[in-house]
Design goal:
Chain A is an all-alpha fold. Chain A has twelve helices and no strands. Chain A is flat. The model of chain A has no long low-confidence stretch (mean pLDDT 85). Chain B has a domain at 63-239. Chain B is 37% helix and 24% strand. Chain B has helices spanning 6-32, 54-58, 77-82, 94-99, 111-118, 134-156, 161-179, 193-199, 245-253; strands at 38-43, 47-48, 63-66, 123-131, 184-190, 206-220, 223-233, 237-239, 266-272, 278-285. In chain B, the strands form three sheets. In chain B, strands 5-4-6-7 form a four-stranded antiparallel beta sheet. In chain B, strands 1-9-10 form a three-stranded antiparallel beta sheet, with helices on one face. A three-stranded antiparallel beta sheet of chain B has the order 2-3-8, with no helix packed on it. In chain B, helix 6 (134-156) packs antiparallel against helix 7 (161-179). Classes of the chains: A mainly alpha (336), B alpha+beta (299).
Chain lengths: 336, 299
């Protein structure tokens, strides 16, 4: 409506009152249908409330999941094993069905998100507690069905919280498998941060496939977690060469990973700008600065006066801002 | 918006849950099919009740903690007490570590070589436990010899409080070794269950369980050697079946009148299946026994 008024004021378009009323009525009915079908926020006030509801929904989902978890532990010992197993499986199946039922009715997604997280918790409890009941050795293979169910909830209900949960399970599974193939016990996978690199590659590859197109933000989430899964191990290995698989002097390994960290975070910024992926630019920039600051800390913290050290950090941040500003204005960047 | 139809995804979700449970339950059933791989009669010494605490109140399930240890050379009081917590047995040497898949080619001659060995991570292994066998007898004899030495020292230094207390502690330790400490000793490790079972055929005395081994080093007589440490057992807490709980519930809710329990209060028949996963078959209450002769309460 604001655009229409502006066009009329500037003499670009002239409409009589009946035409103006028809357009206004059309817009009102269009907004009403969007509110009904997609639960959009038509006003600023509605947007603010939506944000509050999202936060409440997230906290509620986490609290409900914790409640289910402790409820099982509090009472499971009072039932015979057959009843325990039946309750655990039935709870997982029933909450899965409830989530599906809510997803078909709840256009806002707040309640279905709650249900999805509770259903996921029930399934985690299902496997973990049956494992305890039957004295089954803990295995990384449990992460795979957990990832599958979380991703299923995420795609069926457009739930990014469940997407992140599924991605974390997937990272754990791939890293544990890589470690196991190397002969080590899967629970010690974190002691060799390089085990996480194949998971990072997998997530970045998944971000590139087309099936996320109907899901806004999903490809970006894969990219962010793919980059985190690559940068965090690089950051760790850049200061703890002892944790590497490479049979080289730790100093050399640390130096190598520091250089790799700079190159890959720089590449992330470059590709993020080229492909118009703001989350990739932000993640790349953040880690580039972290790599830079940790290096400066190593070099100068002991030898420089503190005011000068922080002045250098501040100037570097300004320099990064200027470079990014120039990149943003660059006419050659893609406009996809 | 959704690529999957709602009906389709519901069926897929239910399918994931059902299929996963089917795999887990059939694996557990497979473990318990046929004659158990081993079946031992343990007591409270080897399968202890969980520690009382806040987490116990929030968890109504009950699992017994597998208590095990390794035999160590050396007979100083410090070594004897420490042996209960030490997980670096003498038999886990360079050769055994190499058999378990660790790279020992660089040897132990230099600090760099040992460092390269220690950098390797834990590997899964099958660990053999012996119940009340020669390893326990040796530990018992070590404790008795130690008590004899302390008693002789106290007799030679009559009136010296330090010697008297040392002798008293050593005597109390013998009582604990005889009646309280675990008799389950880790005596071997390998990667093939059939080979280990061939080496230790008595299924009611030798238990094979999954665990992990971590590289370690050992300094003895000024000489460094490569060694290993038994870092963990895959299943160290064993679920108590609902039908067997009553005895243990009664015991864990009864306040103990004495600071030390003098003797095991229950025995447990433990079976280990084809996948080396254990389960409790039976728990029986043992008759109350009179307090031991040694004054362990005042330790």
């Amino acid at each position: 409506m604001n655009l229409l008024a502006r066009l009329q004021n500037e003499g670009v378009l002239t409409l009589d009152s009946s035409q103006q009323q028809a357009i206004a009525a059309h817009h009102t009915s269009l907004l009403a249908s969007y509110v009904r079908d997609f639960a959009i926020d038509p006003t600023r006030r509605a947007r603010r409330l939506s944000l509050g509801m999202r936060v409440a929904s997230l906290l509620g989902a986490l609290a409900l999941a914790a409640s289910v978890f402790f409820l099982f532990y509090q009472f499971w010992g009072y039932f015979p094993e057959v009843a325990q197993v039946s309750i655990l499986i039935t709870a997982a199946l029933a909450t899965c069905g409830l989530t599906n039922w809510l997803q078909q009715r709840d256009t806002t997604g707040y309640f279905s998100k709650l249900a999805a997280l509770v259903a996921f918790t029930c399934f985690v409890l299902n496997l973990a507690m049956i494992g305890s009941l039957l004295n089954v050795a803990p295995t990384d293979k449990a992460l795979l069905p957990w990832a599958a169910l979380a991703l299923l909830f995420a795609y069926s209900g457009d739930q990014r919280l469940l997407l992140v949960t599924g991605i974390l399970c997937l990272i754990g599974f791939v890293a544990a498998r890589v470690g196991t193939w190397g002969g080590i016990y899967w629970l010690h996978v974190g002691e060799r941060p390089e085990n996480f690199f194949p998971a990072a590659a997998l997530l970045l590859a998944l971000a590139a496939v087309g099936w996320h197109q109907p899901y806004p933000g999903f490809a970006a989430t894969y990219r962010v977690f793919g980059l985190l899964t690559a940068f965090v191990p690089m950051l760790v290995l850049g200061h703890w060469g002892y944790g590497s698989y490479l049979d080289l002097p730790p100093d050399l390994i640390e130096g190598g990973y520091q250089v790799l960290g700079f190159i890959t975070s720089g590449l992330a910024v470059y590709f993020g700008v080229r492909r118009d992926w703001p989350e990739t630019v932000n993640t790349g920039t953040t880690f580039f600065i972290i790599f830079l600051y940790t290096k400066f800390f190593d070099w100068w913290w002991e030898v420089m006066p503190k005011y000068l050290f922080f002045l250098v950090l501040g100037l570097i941040a300004l320099l990064v801002l200027l470079v990014l500003k120039r990149l943003r204005r660059s006419p050659g960047q893609a406009t996809r | 918006m959704n690529v999957l139809g709602q009906q389709r995804w519901l069926l897929t979700g239910l399918g994931v849950i059902v299929l996963t449970n089917a795999i887990v339950l059939s694996g557990a059933a497979l473990n318990r099919i046929g004659e158990p791989e081993s079946r031992l009669l343990l007591s409270e010494r080897e399968l202890a009740l969980p520690y009382a605490g806040g987490s116990r109140r929030a968890n109504s399930g009950l699992a017994l903690r597998l208590e095990w240890r390794v035999a160590l050379d050396g007979d100083s009081p410090h070594n004897i007490a420490y042996a209960r917590y030490e997980r670096q047995p003498d038999w886990l040497d360079e050769k055994r570590m190499s058999d378990l898949g660790f790279d020992t080619r660089k040897g132990a001659a230099t600090a760099e070589a040992r460092q390269a060995f220690l950098r390797q991570l834990s590997r899964p292994a099958l660990i053999v436990f012996e119940l009340a066998g020669p390893a326990w007898q040796r530990a018992l004899q070590q404790a008795r010899d130690n008590a004899d030495r302390h008693a002789a020292a106290a007799a030679a230094n009559r009136g010296n409080r330090e010697f008297a207390e040392g002798a008293k502690a050593a005597r109390a330790f013998v009582v604990q070794e005889e009646a309280e400490h675990t008799r389950l000793f880790a005596i071997d490790a390998g990667s093939d269950a059939a080979t280990l079972r061939q080496r230790y055929p008595e299924r009611n005395r030798f238990l094979i369980l999954r665990g992990t081994v971590r590289p370690a080093e050992r300094l003895r007589d000024g000489q460094w050697t490569l060694a290993g440490r038994l870092s963990e057992i895959a299943i160290e807490e064993i679920h108590v079946p609902y039908t067997q709980r009553a005895i243990l519930d009664e015991l864990s809710s009864t306040p103990q009148g004495k600071p030390h329990r003098p003797a095991p209060r229950y025995e447990v028949q433990l079976a280990v299946g084809q996948r080396l996963e254990p389960w409790i078959e039976r728990i029986a209450r043992l008759p109350d026994q009179p307090p031991p002769a040694g004054d362990i309460g005042s330790n």
